[in-house]
Automatic annotation (TrEMBL):
The lineage of its organism: Bacteria, Bacillati, Actinomycetota, Actinomycetes, Micrococcales. The chain crosses the membrane at residues 180-204, 251-271. InterPro entries: DUF8094. Residues 302-595 form the DUF8094 domain. Keywords: Membrane, Transmembrane, Transmembrane helix. This is DUF8094 domain-containing protein. Residues 212-231, 272-300 are annotated as: Disordered. Residues 272-286 have a biased composition (Low complexity). The keyword Repeat does not apply.
Length: 602
């Protein structure tokens, strides 16, 4: 009977193991589901809409092929539509009826350019645009995986001129876990082990039943019988076969099953798992989380111009380019990422250093983390964003504030202001980067001073000191610009001037746009630029003025003159302007100053 039970256990073990293995082989469901389509209209761009990306839950694996070069980028849908503008493109969307991808040829809507933007040919190649949250390129074919939340689309192109890749496939992972495969395989191995034990017990019982019985107690002495030959003793091995070989083989089978199959079932897909608890946090990396791409639903304010990861990539590119351009005095390269007063200062510095290599370079942009990101709330262009780069080693690496501006969707962000923050500067509280801040009008009267009046008022303080009417409105403590550029500094210059000339100081508006972003205290952070003009004139026009070796001579190219020299110093200024009903003063947060022009008087 023991042998019957052992056989039944072995049969049951084989069935359990076979069914467990079958669940991971012949019965295994596909690991993903996919939809494919072909783009044949010859458009330079194809856009995979968010409805297609969200057809199934989970991350999206996009495979694109059909052109020599392949470009894929994902971004907010509105940004992709703005970049395409009025061009024709292939819209890839989900057909809800057939549950397949549908392709339609569509013409985009042109974004109205900013009034101050100059008519210039815009790039057609989407590679390198600041609007993309992530981009990848390849040759012939490309496969990438993203986790796109609602409101995200994917742009597919070749080089913006040639037709876009023709073959597009979107795949989603499916849950093909087999939670009972592991228990069946391990349970079958255990059942085989139980059958083997039953078999050993039956074999032992059989051996015992074949042994000679004990002698019966002696009774009355019987007569001696004739002696007959003793039969040959039959060994147990001659009845059951080679016991040792059977035992070893039967031990090997369950051991192999228990170790090999049990170990093969250690993967999580082989076992039942409890539903994970919700943590309430997004883990989409490098793809954006909904927090990074959508404004809160509480109000209907426009979305922020950029996300934090997007700005980190943009600023990283700018820092690398600036370091290389500063080292090589590359004016053409720096002009691709700088504009306005920030560009003026660097171009003048390059020209001076070309003539005088010992002249100090403009303050470098630190390769440091972004400690503050304040994008403008806007769905249109131009767009503005302010950020602060602060190194952990503040003693040797200055903290810099950048104000960047993007004029149109196909143009990249340019640095308009790059200022070094004051050591004592405390940036006021601002809205989170996921919300952004509205742009304040330059003539806004709800501040203690209208943003477009702040620059001229502060320049008057530098020129006249306490005699300026604006002196009581600005905080003097911690303001190092007054020490370096103010009345005392100008008096020192006058004292050093020879009797052969006179010196005059005047102010003028700078080339930068007045930019003001709202703060949490109903005030604003204001970036402005002013020019301070120093005019040195020869007395009676008879004396000769010889520029000192250095910046003025390098920019003017004048060896000597009997007329005079006019030098213009550009000043980039960053302020915190409180609300109109506040008793706080206007605080200088940071500044940057440098000679930008020097010419002979007419």
């Amino acid at each position: 009977m023991r042998f019957v039970f052992a056989i039944l256990a072995f049969v049951l073990a084989a069935l359990m193991i076979a069914f467990g293995i079958a669940q991971r082989t012949v019965f295994l469901e596909p690991a993903s589901t996919s939809m494919s389509t072909t783009v044949e209209d010859g458009s330079a761009y194809a856009v995979i809409d968010g409805s297609a990306l969200g057809a199934f839950p989970g991350s999206q694996t996009i495979t694109v092929s059909g052109s020599d070069s392949v470009f894929v980028a994902y971004a907010r849908t509105a940004d992709i539509q703005a970049w395409i503008g009025g061009d024709e493109y292939s819209a890839v969307s989900l057909d809800a009826d057939t549950k397949s991808l549908a392709v339609t040829t569509t013409t985009g809507t042109e974004v109205a350019p900013a009034e101050e933007a100059e008519a210039a040919p815009l790039p057609t190649d989407p590679a390198g645009s600041d609007l993309w949250l992530e981009e990848v390129t390849g040759e012939k074919t490309l496969t990438t995986t993203i986790s796109a939340p609602e409101g995200i689309s994917v742009l597919v192109a070749s080089d913006g001129t040639a037709p876009a890749p023709t073959d597009i496939t979107v795949a989603w992972p499916t849950d093909n876990a087999t939670p009972w495969a592991g228990p069946l395989i391990v349970g079958g191995a255990l059942m085989a082990l139980i059958g083997f034990v039953i078999y050993l017990l039956g074999l032992l019982h059989f051996r015992r039943s074949r042994r000679p019985r004990r002698n019966v107690p002696r009774g009355p002495r019987m007569p001696r019988l004739p002696r007959v030959p003793r039969p040959k003793t039959i060994k147990a091995s001659e009845i059951t076969g080679p016991r040792r070989s059977i035992g070893r083989s039967m031990i090997a089978v369950p051991l192999v099953l228990v170790t090999g199959l049990a170990l093969s079932g250690c993967s999580p897909e082989f076992w039942p798992t409890a539903a994970p608890e919700s943590t309430g946090t997004a883990t989409a990396t490098p793809a954006p989380s909904p927090e990074d791409t959508e404004a809160p639903a509480v109000d209907e304010a426009p979305q922020p111009a950029v996300t934090v990861p997007q700005l980190e990539r943009i600023v990283g590119d700018i820092v690398d380019l600036t370091a290389e351009a500063d080292a090589n005095l590359d004016a053409d390269s720096i002009a691709t990422r700088f504009t306005g007063p920030a560009l003026e200062q660097r171009l003048a510095n390059y020209k001076i250093r070309t003539a005088d290599a010992s002249f100090a370079a403009t303050t470098a942009l630190p390769d440091s983390p972004l400690t503050l990101t304040l994008p403008q709330q806007t769905d249109t262009w131009p767009r503005v964003v302010m950020t602060v780069l602060q190194s952990t080693d503040e003693a040797s690496v200055p903290t810099m504030a950048l104000v960047l501006k993007q004029k149109s969707p196909r143009e990249n962000y340019l640095v308009e202001y790059a200022v070094q923050l004051e050591a004592s500067a405390k940036v006021p509280g601002v809205a989170p980067a996921t919300i952004g801040a509205p742009l304040i009008a330059p003539d806004n009267k709800f501040m203690s001073m209208a943003p477009n009046e702040v620059g001229p008022a502060y320049a008057d303080i530098l020129l006249n000191g306490e005699a300026s009417p604006s002196f009581p409105l600005f905080e003097a403590e911690g303001d190092t610009a007054r020490t370096q550029l103010g009345v005392d500094y100008k008096a020192k210059q006058l004292a050093e001037l020879e009797d052969t000339g006179t010196m005059e100081f005047t102010n003028a508006a700078g080339s930068g746009e007045v930019i003001a972003l709202a703060t949490n205290d109903s005030g604003s952070i204001v970036a402005v630029s002013v020019n301070e003009i120093t005019t040195v004139t020869a007395v009676n026009g008879k004396a000769t003025i010889t520029p000192k070796e250095g910046p003025s001579k390098a920019l003017s190219g004048i060896e000597k003159t009997s007329k005079g020299i006019q030098s213009t110093y550009g000043e980039q200024l960053l302020f915190h302007v409180p609300a109109a009903n506040s008793t706080d003063k206007i605080v200088l947060l940071g500044f940057a100053q440098g000679l930008i022009n020097s010419v002979e008087l007419p």
